[in-house]
Amino acid sequence: MDGSKLHVAILASPGMGHLIPVLLLANRLATQHGVKVTVLEVTTAFSPSESHLLKLPTEKNLVERIELPPVEISHLIKPDTKVVEQLCMMLREALPGVRSTISALNHRPDALIVDHFGTEALPIAAEFNMAKYVYVPSTAWFVALTIYCPVLDKEVEGQYVDQQDLLKIPGCKPIRPEDVVDPMLDRNDQQYYEYVSMGNRLTQFDGILLNTWEDLESTTLKAFKENEIWRSIVKIPVHPIGPLRRPVQPDGSKSAVIEWLDKQPNDSVVFVSFGSGGMLSAQQITELAFGLEMSEQKFIWVVRPPTEGAADDAFFTSKTVDSDGTPYYLPEGFSTRTGNLGRVVSMWAQQVEILNHPSVGGFMTHCGWNSTLESICSGVPMIAWPLYAEQRLNATYLVEELGISVRPLVLPTKNVVARDEIEKMVRSLMDDEEGKKISLLQFFDFLSAENALSKGGSSYNSLSEMLKHVAAKLKV
Ligand code: UDP
Q1: 321 - beta bridge partners?
Q2: Of the four listed, 19, 63, 150, 411, which is most buried by Cβ atoms within 10 Å?
Q3: Is the CB of 139 under 6 A from ligand 1?
């Protein structure tokens, strides 16, 4: 579909994990379909410090990025206000800026796309007579749970996590109670109500875009189309348009980590990273350090201060590094003992470049959806270590449905994973037949991902379909 006469605005929630998929969608619309895109970025006084590290140029002629006036919610939050509620508040506070920015644009957008935290912008789309879409840069399974949550809310008594039986969702893989998304963990918390409202609003758009593809989630996507219950709930098209993920961006210079990787044998290094916000407890960091050391496998580990350190500035600033340069939150002498084995990177690494390096053969990941897609598309098998949001669902899907990951016996959010279990998982991924079997499966997923995105592929066609609807609405 040639969308060269179309202009689409996309509203991006704050945080790297939200901004990255929006910029990827903007690039995709511009480069593949010729659409002009304006990205409206919600900013806060505490914008993520990593955003300058994001090597993701946007298509210069067609994609414009506009930072909305920073939102301030400190007067609204209490010490126990959870992340989802905070994000919904930020987006709510940003709405006046969204409205004024859109009304000041020379060329009024034909469609407004929001992510799932921005669904309260629906009336703005109506006000400016724009088509309205919601982009959930995650799995169809997560969206099924989100939309079905208002039904579960009526049917299920007590906390979801206390249920003895799996949570049933029509036509979809049932959900283990312990895997529910963060806002469903406590039904008495305000963020649960935000989530239920979000589920209700998702079906009021002209369509839902998902960062997945037909072959990866055929069962759930088919259920949306064919299951009678779903057809009565979701009367709008669901467009799987992925996997949109960051490409490798060679810039001529090599970081020290990539230079080190260049010297390692193929598939010999496990990459350990827990996303843009993932933090572990001090005890878990210690176990992980010993587990990696005991596995005797090569590693790159992106470390962040422990959760306790972040909450306690005095703890954080009073200690820095040991005599051999080991950060204070790793076991003493770790850098010396593992100098030949691995590299520790503080806070942020060029993940896409690392995952695409031939020396990397495994990824211990928090299962954020961007990281998961980057791993699948690089053909790197995973150790699933979910921490927050919808990551427990992602981990279960990777292990049970796709068979492309191993995971700890007990969720890392419930128990500290002990060093010997970590040693065993890393060895099984990097060393054994198990790892090789997983790698092979990854290869097939990678091929199906490429096919979906290419011209005439399922995701390409699905995005074209959405643009046709936008164009048709203009003519009415
Ligand atoms: N990322 C990175 N370097 C890091 C940590 C994260 O490049 O050290 C990128 C990663 O490649 C991914 C994104 O940040 O594209 C994280 O998104 P994801 O959905 O995986 O997790 P989130 O950070 O939202 O929990």
Answers
A1: 327
A2: 19
A3: no
